[in-house]
Amino acid sequence: MKLKIILLIGLLAIIAACYVAFTSRMPHAEASEALVSQTAKPTPTDTFSDVNYDSLRLKIVNEFPIARPGKWGEFVKGVDEDIDTNSKIIAFTFDACGTKYGDEYNAALISYLRLEHIPATLFFTGLWIDANPDTFRVLAHDSLFEIENHGFEHRPCAVCGETEYGIRGTLNVGEAFDEIERNNRKIKKVTGRRPIFFRSATAFCDEECVKVAGQLGVTIISYDILSGDAVAGTPAKEIANNILKGARDGAIVIMHMNHPKWNALSALRIAIPELRKRGFQFVKLEHHRLKGRY
Ligand SMILES: [Zn+2]
Which residues of 75-107 are buried (b: 16+ CB within 10 A; e: fewer)? Predict the structure, then answer.
């Protein structure tokens, strides 16, 4: 009998202890959830695309009351051209320029990238998107590709109308804003994601334009390896050699996806197996820290 009482008391003690432990854990659990909700990144709100276009334009224009273009070039201060890394990675980027600079689609090149599982960053103009809306929609939803901004009208980004390769740049801050922001919004409408990178037409821009882009949350991207595919008739071997000669950790390669008759694809068929033999892997730009020479 005594033993039964002792066992009963023991059992009650265990139940009481479990209850105390359970109830004392609850506040901790709630506290830790509260901590998570405090420290977790908020749902990204788009502080640019959600703002009225004209208001944002006026705000940016007012921030640059006097045009100070600074240097003009492909590698001016603030432009990035490399991934900051010691890893054997290379980023292929392909421009889709539009209009007389090419609004065709190199479908075979994109098929090759898919077949070989090569991620790539694609820069689109608004003009190319208008010429190829269905294709753009498909590319925009292919996770192999990162969709970025090549300008609304394929105009070099400038605040005083500098011209490059016969293409006149934007004339002032307002036009530079339009070139970047109109296309950012156009792209976001389809992808649901606001571009974070902008490659100016011809890759030339001035220093003020870099600042305008910065005010829009956008980094201007140039290149480390000029493949040379944009000169019509350049042999595939020459393009491939340019890529292989320049290949190094974190290099950004510039190519085009809007000229099926150019030799970009044949060049890739030569360069890619060799790069893989050398141990390189291919990446998109997003999620990597980038750097420029200035
Ligand atoms: Zn272009």
Answer: bbebbbbbbeeeeeebbbbbbbbbeebbbbbbe
* Gap from CA of 257 to ligand 1 centroid (Å): 10
Tell whether 77 and 171 lie within a shared domain: yes
Backbone angles phi, psi at 277, to 5 degrees: -60, -35
CA 130 – ligand 1 centroid, Å: 15
Q: What is the CATH number of the domain that holds 163?
A: 3.20.20.370
Q: Quick one: pLDDT band at residue 67, thresholds 50, 70, 90?
A: confident
Radius of gyration for the alpha carbons in the chain, expressed in angstroms and rounded: 27
Q: For 15-56, how does the pLDDT look when each residue is reduced to its tens digit (9 = 90+)?
A: 444 343 433 333 333 333 333 333 444 445 577 888 999 999
Give 7 Cα–ligand 1 centroid separation in angstroms.
Answer: 84
Do 16 and 69 share a domain, yes or no? no
Number of domains in the chain: 2
Query: Measured in angstroms, how far is the CA atom of residue 289 from the centroid of ligand 1?
Result: 24
Classify residue 25: in a domain, yes or no: yes
Going from the Cα of 251 to the center of ligand 1, the distance in angstroms, rounded, reads 19
pLDDT in tens, 219-252: 999 999 999 999 889 999 999 999 999 999 999 9
Considering the domain boundaries, does residue 263 fall inside one?
A: yes
> Same structural domain for residues 72 and 191?
yes
Q: How many angstroms is it from 202 CA to the middle of ligand 1?
A: 6
CA of 243 to the centre of ligand 1 (A): 19
Residue 180 Cα to ligand 1 middle (Å): 14
Residues 60 and 32 in one domain: no
**Pair 178, 57: CB distance under 8 Å:** yes
pLDDT in tens, 135-163: 999 999 999 999 999 999 999 999 999 99
What's the domain range around 5? 1-40
Closest CA to 63 of 161, 159, 149: 159
pLDDT higher than 90, residue 183: yes
